[in-house]
Amino acid sequence: MTKAASKAMQRFSGDPKEREIAMATFLVIYAQGRSITYAAGQAGVSRITIWTWRQKYTDFNEAFVAAQEEGTDTYEDRLYELAIEDGNVSAVIFGLRMRGRAPAVARVSGEGDDGAPSDTNIEELADNALQRGYVVPTKAVEAKEA
Asked: What are the extents of the domains in the chain?
């Protein structure tokens, strides 16, 4: 354990109220989708302290898992906005991959599987996704219909 981590543990091991405040601060920030390092820093502790608390305090570990889920939901909501509202096809594909349902498209642009230039475009991607029953951003459908 580093000196800084040791100091942090000493600082919070003696005063339960201070530790609870630091834990709550960390959880609120972490639930917003921020990294463990960032949230720990804002709470005045190290990543190692967070790990130690997870091992030592069952309630904190359960709250950590819940905060992690909430933070992930924040990113999923933003990804949805990019995909559906902004018509970002990459966001659609990424979102589907996260859910295990990505369309079978090897490459969006550049070279095809045989090394020859690929002419895949947004209209083809939209058509492929629609044929497979996926939700496609409105802008991609409009581009295909034009």
From this structure: 3-68, 86-145
Contact, 24 vs 18, CB < 8 A?
Answer: no
Question: d(Cα 138, Cα 75) in Å, to the nearest integer?
Answer: 21
pTM recorded for the entire structure: 0.57
Distance CA 27, CA 39 (A): 8
In angstroms, the CA 2 to CA 48 distance is 9
> Contact, 70 vs 78, CB < 8 A?
no
10-residue block means of pLDDT along the chain (146 residues)?
50 76 95 93 95 96 94 83 79 71 49 52 63 58 49
Residue pair 48/2 in contact by the 8 Å Cβ criterion: yes
